Amino acid sequence: MALRGVRPAAAVSVLALAMLTACAPTAVPDAAPTAGTVTVVTIGDSIMAGYGLDPSTAWPALLASETGADVANLACSGAGFATPGSCGTDFGGLLEQATALRPRYVILQSSSNDEGVSTQTLEDATTATVEAVHQDLPGATIVGLSTIWKDADSAPEVVQVSSDALRTAVDAVGGVYIDLGQPLSSTGDLMQADQIHPTAEGQQDLSTAIGAALTAHGIDLTG
Fold first, then answer.
1. In this predicted model, what pLDDT tens digit does every residue of 88-114 receive, in sequence order?
2. Scanning 6, 107, 109, 128, which has its CA 20 to 30 A from the CA of 165?
């Protein structure tokens, strides 16, 4: 199968890093893909966007190259389910663009950018976003991925809280929730100097871990 790769979503500016947000702003690709032409839409934060790296090294791009799936990465740096990012909105604000692409899979990843948001607010925002995807794209498989941190030992409380909120919301609509653990906690040069964002090697580890987890859950992104 010919490899098509990641289709870019929208240009966003780079904002300042905040140490307890897993996603400082980053550049997201700059041209909207044609509606109805992608297999997978990914929505997440700057870890998903590949902050500090060429966008082609972000894990959705790597997964696209490895599988041949056509992926539109709508990641918004600094954003979460209840927190607006550098694109000017939270994850829910990206759904109009995602819906227009008519993907067969929507991959949503929770984020530590929702640090400081009350648990109830985060749960409500996460549920509303997942329910909107389910309503607007009834034929799509919704996949939820747990929040990424550099290691389990140093993870703030929001990592577990945001992951749990997504698990509950995805389970409620019959989607697939995947607890990734913390793939970046292994040895190697996996984190950039800010100790928040993965290096290119770290992004490759994420792609490998996510690809394996999708396969283990019976998800074929090209099918």
1. 999 999 999 999 999 999 999 999 999
2. 6
**Amino acid (one-letter) located at 92:** G
- The CB-based long-range contact list for 57-60 (8 Å cut-off, 24+ gap) reads 57/200, 57/203, 57/204, 58/6, 58/203, 59/203, 59/204, 59/206, 59/207, 59/210, 60/6, 60/107
The torsion of the CA quartet 215, 146, 192, 50, rounded to 10 degrees, works out to 70
Residues 28 and 211: beta-carbon distance below 8 Å: no
Q: Which two tokens stand for residue 5?
A: 């790769």
Strand partners, 119: none
Q: How far is CA 187 from CA 103, 184, 201, 205, 208, in A?
A: 35, 8, 11, 11, 15
Rounded to whole angstroms, how far apart are CA atoms 152 and 213?
Answer: 18
Q: Mapping DSSP to helix (H, G, I), strand (E, B) and coil, where does residue 3 land?
A: coil
The answer to whether 201 and 192 have CB atoms below 8 angstroms apart is no
Q: Which residues contact 194 (CB under 8 A, 6 or more apart)?
A: 17, 19, 24, 52
pLDDT tens track for 115-132: 999 999 999 999 999 999
